[in-house]
Design brief:
The chain is α+β, with helices and mostly antiparallel strands and 200 residues long. It has two domains: 109 residues, no CATH class; 84 residues, no CATH class. It has four helices and 13 strands. The strands form two sheets. It has a seven-stranded mixed β-sheet. It has a six-stranded antiparallel β-sheet with strand order 5-8-13-10-6-7. The protein is globular. It starts with a helix and ends with a strand.
C-alpha cells in the first residue's frame, strides 16, 4: 500500500485555492477537503492527505513525531532536505497532513508509489499511455499525437484519487479524469490518470 496512507492506517486505524495565473498557488489545511496534489512551476510538489481521525485513542503528537522521523530518515538517506512536513492539523475529525517534495521523484521514492512527470517532448517514455485524450477547451476527444503536439507542455501521470492543482493551464486529460477548472483536475481512481498542461 501507499506509504502516505499507511501512516494513518497502520498507526491509528488509520490551497487557499486560486484561479490559474502566474500568481503563486498554495494549499492549506483550512481549505483541503480531499487528498490533493499541488504541482508548482518549479517542479516541487505539495501533497495533502486527509483521513478520519475521530477515535479517542488517536494521538496527533504521536502522528506528528512518526511522520517527522520518516521525513528525517529519508532526507538523511538521500543526503539533503528534499521532503518536509509542512503542516498537520485536525479539522472536523479528520487529520490533514501536507508534505512538500522538492520534485516528483522524491514523492515517488518517499511513498514507494508509481508516478511520472515529464515534458511533452520527452522521447521513449516507458509508459503505456492512453491513445485518446479530452481537449479541455473544446471538450472533444483527440489523438495522443495531437495531445502531445506542443513540446512546451508538461505531463503528469498519477495512479491515485486526487484533486490535482497546477500552476498552469490544463490542455488535455485522460478520459477517466474530471475537469474542474482550468488549473484543476480530479483523478477518481487508481488507474492511470494523465494530465497535459501548459506551465504558467
Amino acid at each position: 500500500m501507499k506509504r502516505g496512507i499507511l501512516i494513518f492506517i497502520m498507526l491509528f486505524g488509520i490551497l487557499a485555492f486560486t484561479s490559474c495565473s502566474k500568481e503563486e498557488i498554495f494549499i492549506t489545511t483550512e481549505d483541503v477537503a480531499f487528498n490533493t496534489m499541488l504541482v508548482k512551476r518549479d517542479g516541487s510538489i505539495y501533497v495533502a492527505i486527509v483521513e478520519d481521525f475521530d477515535k479517542s485513542h488517536y494521538n496527533l503528537s504521536e502522528l506528528n513525531e512518526f511522520v517527522s522521523k520518516e521525513v528525517k530518515a529519508y532526507n538523511d538517506e538521500v543526503g539533503s532536505d528534499e521532503v518536509s512536513l509542512e503542516s498537520l492539523e485536525i479539522k472536523n475529525d479528520k487529520a490533514v497532513m501536507i508534505i512538500r517534495y522538492s520534485k516528483m521523484a522524491h514523492y515517488s521514492a518517499f511513498n514507494n508509489i508509481q508516478v511520472a512527470y515529464f515534458s511533452a517532448d520527452t522521447d521513449n517514455v516507458d509508459l503505456d499511455l492512453p491513445a485518446q485524450y479530452i481537449n479541455a477547451k473544446k471538450e472533444t476527444l483527440v489523438s495522443k499525437e495531437d495531445a502531445f503536439k506542443s513540446k512546451k507542455d508538461q505531463v503528469l501521470v498519477v495512479y491515485e484519487p486526487f484533486d490535482i492543482i497546477l500552476e498552469g493551464k490544463v490542455r488535455f486529460y485522460s478520459e477517466n479524469a474530471t475537469y474542474i477548472e482550468e488549473n484543476k483536475i480530479h483523478s477518481a481512481s487508481e488507474d492511470m490518470t494523465v494530465v497535459i498542461y501548459k506551465p504558467m
